[in-house]
Amino acid sequence: GFQVAYVVFRKPAAVQAAKALSQEGPLLISTESHPVKTGISKWIASYEASIVDPKDLKAEVDAYMQDYDKKMAEEEAKAAKEEGVPDEEGWVKVTRKGRKPGLPRTEAANLRLLEKEKQKRARKELLNFYAWQHREAKREHIAQLRKKFEEDKQRIALMRAQRKFRPY
Fold first, then answer.
1. Which domain holds residue 134?
2. Fewer Cβ atoms within 10 Å of its own Cβ: the N or the C terminal residue of the chain?
3. Whole-angstrom Cα distance, residue 66 to residue 79?
4. 145 is a domain residue
5. How many CA atoms, within 13 angstroms, populate the side-chain half-sphere of residue 37?
6. Is 148 helix (H, G, I), strand (E, B) or coil?
């Protein structure tokens, strides 16, 4: 069995009751009327206690969400009532839900904003500003077309060699 036991009392009166017990025989912690679970039986009991009934959990979550929705509706009503009304110092609180709502500060909104700025910059950037840039761009384009034409010619020759070429 156990060699050492540390006892913590919940109530101060329990210490006096423990002192009043007889010292003659050994004191047993686990009896038939009040068994103390140990080992695997304790683990099983704690595991079973940790499993939550889905119906109870759903009911608890639904109740919480109803309270939360009610609280949010009250806050929105209060904010709508106070919107545009100056406080005691004469300041008017500006919110996102006014005539011109502000941008939401989310990551997706920031990415969209950056993408729009990139497009604006690309539109403003002058491509082929000088005449020599025009000529170079045309040369590169013609070179690409010639390369593609040669590749197509080779592919057609290969198809003819395999007798699978059907022009129409």
1. 129-167
2. C
3. 20
4. yes
5. 7
6. helix
